[in-house]
Amino acid sequence: MCIRFLRIWMLACLGCVLVMVAFNVMMDPYLVFGFPRVGGVNFLKPAVETHERLMKPYDVIRREPNTIILGSSMVDFGIDAGHPAWPVYARPVYNGALVGGGPYSSYRYLQHVMAHHRPALVVLGVDFEFFINVPDVTPITSDFEKRLAITASGERNAVRLQQYAIDVLRASASLDAVTDSFATAIANVTGRSSTLAGGNWESIDYYDTTASLGARVMVRDTNSFNIQRLYRKPMNPRAMESVRAILKLCKDHGTQVTIFINPMQAEALEVFDLLGYWRAFENWKRELLSLTNEYSGGDTRQSVVLWDFSGYDELYSSESVPTDRSAMRFFWDSIHYRRTLGEVIVARMFGNEDVPFGVILASGNIESHLANIREQRSLYRLRHSEEVRGVKDLYDEVVATIAGK
């Protein structure tokens, strides 16, 4: 009797485990298995909030995109891989940007993609702050490296299969997976979650915070954080070497490249100037242009285009920050732009010549372009003197705190 009871109990436990595993595989909260996505069941993926670097290495291989988008959270938040402005030859498009991901992360991710599939186009969004020698907010981790098809030196990654086995076990039989599977089910009922469709990432928690605190608080907090991180830091030459490595990899595979300098809200540009980086900011653009010219080589099949969206234009970056708790139209904070602006960027880069935003940099216009931004800066300071003064007060406050530590 006792043995029979134990057998029934063990079979019941095994049955529960198998049901749990089947549920996790079907909900596929981390996109490890590639289980078919069904609207209202498992299409939305809320676990992307905290597991993006687990999901994207597996998801991108199944998608086999013709265009891969690379960059940091600015690109992750702002650029829509499903926007209709993408040219037909570029589709499907996949947003491979990573939160906290600098040029090295972009290079490693692109190596991974190229090991399986050669995209026709690489679109790389770059941020000046990642070229300054500051500790990474979200450094590239060993787990992420182990999920990639090849090592940084270009050799086959011998530990990838082992990491995949760990990820499969984690995604099918862990308590976290059960929790995230139920969260996935609930999100698909409520309809409120990121999808990670095409790699598009959203942070519902971040959006909620922005909505509750308002744009003014978010802009102030972001600027305060950047002042602390960037205060008196030297430039980081390794970041530009990663961009060079991306361009070389694309040239070797015959892949076109579009690089764009991300827009920033005008107060973030003021922070750069207060920190003493303006000359370095301009020189950085010159160096990017020199690098793109080097790898263009007159071959249209392997062309490299450099766009600059980081100026004081009156409509977008100079949008006034509300003093109440309302949000801005084009930015979440001083550096993360909304998809309303990301749509303008994509449309501008791929065919909409009527949009008065963004400039293709070339040897013949770089100096006049930089001079024009300085003129726009002067006009901004005249028209937004109160906001400029507020940034200066914040800068003085943060620097005094740093000096007192």
Structure description:
With 405 residues, the chain is of the alpha/beta class. The chain has a single domain, classed as Rossmann fold (3-Layer(aba) Sandwich). Helices cover 54% and strands 6% of the residues. The protein contains 15 helices and 6 strands. The protein has a 6-stranded mixed β-sheet with strand order 2-1-3-4-5-6. Strand 1, helix 3 and strand 2 form a beta-alpha-beta unit. Helix 4 packs parallel to helix 10. The longest helix is centred in the N-terminal third of the chain and has 26 residues. The termini are far apart. The model has no long low-confidence stretch (mean pLDDT 91).
In short:
By secondary structure, the chain is an alpha/beta fold. Helix content is 54%, strand content 6%.
List the helices and strands and how they pair.
Blueprint: H1 2-27, H2 48-63, E1 67-70, H3 73-78, E2 93-95, H4 103-116, E3 121-126, H5 142-147, H6 160-173, H7 175-190, H8 204-213, H9 215-230, H10 237-253, E4 256-261, H11 266-274, H12 278-296, E5 304-308, H13 339-349, E6 359-360, H14 366-383, H15 385-404
Parallel strand pairs: 1-2, 1-3, 3-4, 4-5
Antiparallel strand pairs: 5-6
Helix pairs in contact: 1-7, 4-10, 6-7, 9-11, 9-15, 10-12, 11-15
